[in-house]
Amino acid sequence: MTYSRPWLSFPDQLAKLKSRGVIVTDDAAALKSLEQFGYYRLSAYWYPFRVREFDARGKLLRVKDEVHPNTHLVDAVHLYLFDKQLRLQVLDALERIEIAIRVDVAHLLGRLDTFAHTQQNQLHKTFANKSKGPGKPTAFDAWTQKRLNLENRSQEDFVKHYREKHGPDLPVWVAAETWDFGAVSQLFAMMKVKHQTQIATQYGVPDWEAFQSWLRSLNYLRNICAHHSRLWNRNMVDQPILPAVGALEWLDKMRASGLTDDELKARPFLILAICRHLVLKLHSGSQWHKRLETHLLALPEMNSDYKVSLQAMGVPENWQDWW
């Protein structure tokens, strides 16, 4: 296929939006938004306002270029700015969680052996030997390559100092400080069940498999936020496993809203609730969840006849009763 869409100047981009029914009341401000944020970044935020066509059975046929009446460009800009602040608040929680889990993993493994992270026999044999297919490296081998890349790439003074004094191999509690969230979550997934259970229990989660999946989903969430991608109404690809009914009171209340587990897992609010749970386990006096609540309730009003809502994030109606 040959790509046939031409390059458009910012004024041409603005003209294109106007031709599709987007209302612009200040051309100078609109051009500045396109120049600062980019047409395709903002397109993710005016996408909900595009008109949809359905067949007689209610199946979506197509999403038209035209938008609903009274849709202003500023609607998309305000939604983008709301999402930007949401990502920043989520990163605040993820930093706390990532650092704490990193310490937990390094401390537990370090008690077994100074270099436990380099020794496959300190991990779960089956988990560490998993492979994505014939000829593919095992989980442990793939993780080891990633770990070494992160450690060798590190320019931290403490890494340079340790290697000058003690040699190239880093103890697990030193090495862990060079790992990203993905490396930590992957190592956790290879640990023995008793060790995964021990750490999961610290955070009030009685299901080690669910907790393992939480870390994987949180790493996915971190990547969304760190790469400035849309979050607020995203379809979540890397979905967490949910513990059984009765394991977590707040989760039972979410389920009581009438949403199925599949519906909860598909939207970002569930992972935000997981962040809330973990942050409160780290510090019961934290106000992070209160700040997030305030921000969610500040979802901007839209000029458009099509109204966006928190429900697009998977927020159930009763959320403030337990949040």
From TrEMBL:
It comes from the Bacteria. It holds the Pfam family Abi_2. InterPro entries: Abi_system_AbiD/AbiF, Abi_system_AbiD/AbiF-like. This is Abi family protein. It comes from Parathalassolituus penaei.
